[in-house]
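Quick review question:
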């Protein structure tokens, strides 16, 4: 009897898992007065920006560690001045945050992918990249692997940045504060375009960015407890390899390739900015 009950709970569980990965179920639109929309039965989400306002959404769940994938298709054409932010963040004044930010550009000029990590409200860990493809032509997968040992930012499965837990040398690491997923599309032509040199061309508004195929293999935080499962029907909840995942040698090679060819800014190489010496985590690798 007990095992029959167990089995039916399992089935119920897998049904719930299979229906996840739906924007209606996983996200709330929080900003933009009709400029953010969930379409196609929850399979597509679009954000738009016009002169009056941008728009944004946030996850219903808070997560404490996970492997979180989202496909984005960025604002095409002349997107200079627009910023599409996609990030994890905890609340409060000593928040933790893991950032992807896509800075638009003039037609034909490359987007800048800006990344940062905040711990206890302190960031200053920027790395910026160009991409090896046009991020406006199609959807691409942007992933955050966040486990107790490391944070890995990946694009289409290629790691572009690894931020390791360096607590052993006194560097704080985000590991105690559950975070929500946020995304917004907004105007930042006062700073995003080479210090505000290029202004947003509003004749091309509204600007639109699209999202699909959200997947979180993550630990969901609720009522002071964490429960780790998968929202993907294709990967059973028992697979939590991400929790101790490290970069294998192929991934390390890919990471080096990106950093050599596509990294355009690295705070760890910006000695002028840190006259007292580079941050400790920069000196180890
Ligand atoms: C826009 O493209 C120019 C030319 O390649 C580049 O120097 C600049 O960094 C880009 N700006 C942004 C915000 O990505």
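Suggested answer, residue by residue:
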């Amino acid at each position: 009897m007990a095992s029959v009950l167990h089995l039916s709970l399992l089935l119920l569980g897998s049904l719930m898992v299979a229906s996840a990965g739906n924007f209606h179920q996983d996200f709330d639109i929080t900003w933009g007065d009709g400029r953010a929309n969930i379409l196609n039965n929850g399979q597509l989400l679009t954000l738009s920006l016009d002169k009056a306002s941008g728009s944004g959404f946030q996850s219903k769940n808070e997560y404490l560690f996970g492997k979180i994938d989202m496909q984005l298709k960025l604002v095409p054409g002349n997107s200079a001045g627009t910023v599409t932010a996609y990030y994890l963040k905890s609340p409060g004044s000593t928040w933790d945050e893991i950032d992807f930010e896509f800075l638009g550009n003039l037609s034909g000029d490359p987007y800048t992918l800006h990344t940062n990590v905040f711990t206890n409200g302190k960031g200053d860990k920027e790395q910026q990249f160009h991409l090896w493809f046009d991020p406006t032509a199609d959807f691409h997968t942007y992933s955050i692997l966040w486990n107790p040992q490391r944070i890995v930012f990946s694009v289409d499965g290629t790691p572009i940045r690894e931020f390791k837990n360096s607590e052993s040398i006194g560097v704080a690491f985000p590991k105690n504060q559950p975070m929500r997923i946020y995304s917004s599309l907004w105007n930042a032509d006062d700073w995003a375009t080479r210090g505000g040199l290029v202004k947003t061309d509003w004749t091309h508004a509204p600007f639109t960015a699209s999202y699909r195929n959200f997947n979180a293999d993550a630990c969901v935080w609720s009522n002071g407890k964490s429960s780790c499962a998968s929202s993907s029907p294709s990967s059973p909840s028992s697979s939590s390899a991400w929790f101790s995942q490290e970069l294998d040698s192929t991934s390390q090679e890919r990471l080096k390739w990106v950093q050599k060819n596509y990294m355009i800014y690295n705070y760890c190489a910006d000695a002028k900015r840190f006259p007292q010496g580079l941050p400790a985590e920069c000196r180890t690798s």
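Why it works: The first strand starts at residue 27 and ends at 31. DSSP finds four helices and 16 strands in the chain.
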